[in-house]
Amino acid sequence: MVELYEFTYTLVxxxxxxxxxxxxxxxxxxxxSWAESSFIGFTMGLNIVxxxxxxxxxxxxxxxxxEWFPFIGIFLGILMVLRLFPKYxxxxxxxxxxxxxxxxxxxxxxxxxTGFINQIRATIVPLYVAGDLYQSxxxxxxxxxxxxxxxxxxxxxxxxxxxxxxxxxxxxxxxIALGAVFAQTxxxxxxxxxxxxxxxxxxxxxxxxxxALAAIVLGGILIMDRYGVLEKYSD
Length: 235
Known about the structure:
The two termini are about 40 Å apart. This protein has helices at about 5-20, 30-65, 70-80, 95-125, 135-150, 160-200, 205-225. It is mainly α. The model has no long low-confidence stretch (mean pLDDT about 85).
C-alpha cells in the first residue's frame, strides 16, 4: 500500500519531469515554465534552509558558547548582504575580496598538483613494460600523443616540414581526444536519463501514472499549439 505522501510527491515529480521534457517540442509552453519556476523556487528554498542551518551550527552556536573566531564570518557575511543596498554596496567589496582571495589561494594549491604536476607525472611513463604488452602500448600512445599535441600548439616558429607533419598529427589526435570526451559525457548523461526513467517506472504502480501524465502534457501542448495559445500562456 502506497502512502498518500509518497503517492503525491511521486505524481508531482513525474509531472514536472515530463513538463521539463516539453522543451523538446521546440516552443515555449506553460508546462515547461511551471516546471522551471518550481525547480528554481524549490532549489532556492532548500539552499536557504541548508545554508541557514549550516550558519547556525558552525557560526551562531559557537559564538553563543563564547568562541569569538566564528563571529568574524558572521560579520563579513552581514557586510556582504549590503550588496543589496546601493548606498552601502561598496562596503560589500571587502568580504567579497576576502572570499575570492581565500578561495583562489586554496584552489591554486590544489590546481598546481591536480592540473599541472600530476598531469606531467602521468605522461612520464616507461614506454616498455616487461611482460605487459597492453600497458606498453598504452604508455607509448600516451607519450607520443602528448608530444604530437604539444607541437600543434607551437606558435613561436613556422610549422613546416617534419614539424608541420607532427603538428597535423597532433591536431587529429586532439580531435580524437575531444570526441572521446564528448562521447563519455553523452554516455554519462544517457546513464542519468536511464536511471531517472527507471525511478519513475519502478515499482510497477508508477508506470500507468507516468504514461498518463506524459499523454496529458503532450496532448495539452498539441491542443494549445493548435489553437495558437501555447506561447501566450508560457510566460
